[in-house]
Amino acid sequence: MKLAFCVEDDTDEDVFRVLLTRILGTEVTPSETAYRFPRGGWTNALRLAPFIAKDAYNKGLDGALFAIDNDGAASTHSTAHKDGTEGCPLCELRAAARVHEPLSWPRHGLPALRYLFAVPVQTLETWLLLARGYDFKGESETLGRDGSGRAKLKRLLYGVEHPDRDTMRNAALPLAESLDVKALAKVSPSFADFLTQLR
Ligand SMILES: [Zn+2]
């Protein structure tokens, strides 16, 4: 299964590739084109999302994954939201991607497109720290709302605030490969939502 991976960096791509492969039970590979939502580039992400959704169709891929950290957004997603709910990154990203357009186009025998959206609260590091059993003392949903909190999440997971690629891979990949999916869904609503989309 080949997906366009629209993520913030290479480590995010690695982690989501492993998680999707495990949860979907089929090898998931990123397309050759490395689509990126640069950190802090939220407006850019909303602008790019519909082009990436259509590009996945045009390239004959199986769909796309859009993943961007919540990073302290005013509203976090709830299942009660209607698409486009103002202030919720997940709903805004989903609405911006306009996936109903490519989903309505003929597939000429290819499997149906899948479009997946993930907005870890507050960041992907939160998911991985919860998976590692870190005790947030009730702050797992709030730590990382601001820059100093996000720096702390990096120090907790990687040991340093500005890890290099190998340090990130060495810490993140074993967690992605071994984490208990059901247990993480119980403690992280944003991961539970992601899991729901996959089932
Ligand atoms: Zn929402």
Alpha-beta classification: alpha/beta
Q: How much β-strand is present in the residues?
A: 5-15%
Tell me the series of helices and strands, N- to C-terminal: EHEEHEHHEHHHHH
Portion in helices: 40-55%
Total helices: the number is: 9
Low-confidence segments:
none
How many strands, which pairing sense, and closed or not: the largest β-sheet?
Answer: 5 strands, parallel
Number of strands: 5
The total tally of domains equals 1
How far from one another are the termini? 16 Å
Shape: globular
Catalogue the ligands: zinc ion
What is the typical, i.e. mean, pLDDT?
94
- Integer-rounded radius of gyration: 16 Å
Description:
The chain is α/β, with parallel strands linked by helices. The protein has one domain (about 1-125, about 180-199). It has helices spanning about 10-25, 40-60, 90-95, 100-105, 125-130, 145-160, 165-180, 180-185, 190-199; strands at about 1-5, 30, 35, 65, 115-120. Strands 1, 2, 3, 4 and 5 form a five-stranded parallel sheet that branches. Helix 2 (about 40-60) packs across helix 3 (about 90-95), helix 5 crosses helix 6 (about 145-160) and helix 8 (about 180-185) packs across helix 9. The protein is globular and about 50 Å long. The model has no long low-confidence stretch (mean pLDDT about 95). The structure holds zinc ion (ZN).
